[in-house]
Specification:
Elements lengths: L1 E6 L2 E7 L6 H13 L27 H12 L3 H13 L1 E3 L3 E3 L14 H14 L34 H5 L4 H17 L3
Antiparallel strand pairs: 1-2, 3-4
Helix pairs in contact: 2-6, 3-6
Length: 191
């Protein structure tokens, strides 16, 4: 639910009710805004609209979106992100498994996903989350027009290698990046 604060036709701000923990916090936010107005202006909520919006999931990672998200969420530099991604791609020496690659090629500007990966995602989502979490029609994403498309999006190679399993096998840096890639890919395939 969102509220748009309008004061004499001036849009003062758009506030998402879901971002406030309680009504008191919401009222404080509006109070702070109204105190910035000259004393003679009146505060009138002209309209409140309620409704639901369907939000599509984000596409799987490309090189640039991985770097941006790793910077924002993990505090990684681009160099650190790409070094960890390269290592996850080339393979980690994992006890009991040998040297295995955990993610697809990380230098890509495509958001395409192979049919094999899409089918594996469907099977995994239905098995562990339930049928209602898989969309009636699979999610497809458009790559930029100048995307080369030679590689698919960055994704985990095996969905059965969950972040929980990987946590025991990887160091902190590699685990954090793998978890980011894994969760983004899985979310991109869900309803």
């Amino acid at each position: 639910r969102k509220a748009i604060l309008m004061i004499h036709g001036f849009v003062g701000g758009c506030y998402d009710f879901n971002n406030f923990h309680n009504e008191l916090e919401l009222y404080r936010k509006f109070d702070v805004f109204t105190f910035t107005l000259p004393a003679h202006d009146k505060f009138i909520v002209k309209d409140v609209k309620y409704g639901e919006r369907e939000k599509r999931p984000f596409p799987p990672f490309t090189t640039s979106s991985l770097q941006q998200d790793a910077s924002r969420r993990l505090g990684f530099t681009s160099k650190r992100t790409m070094a960890a991604a390269q290592s996850l791609y080339e393979g980690e020496n994992i006890e009991g498994y040998g040297t295995i690659g955990l993610i697809t090629y990380m230098r890509t500007d495509s958001v395409n996903v192979s049919e094999q990966a899409r089918a594996a995602a469907k099977e995994f989502i239905v098995k562990y989350c339930g049928e209602e979490y898989y969309p009636a029609r699979p999610n497809f994403f458009k790559s930029k027009e100048d995307a080369q498309g030679a590689h698919e999006a960055i994704r985990p190679i095996d969905l059965e290698m969950t972040p929980d399993k990987a946590k025991k096998l990887l160091d902190k840096k590699h685990y954090a990046l793998y978890k980011l890639v894994y969760e983004r890919f899985l979310a991109s395939q869900m309803a």
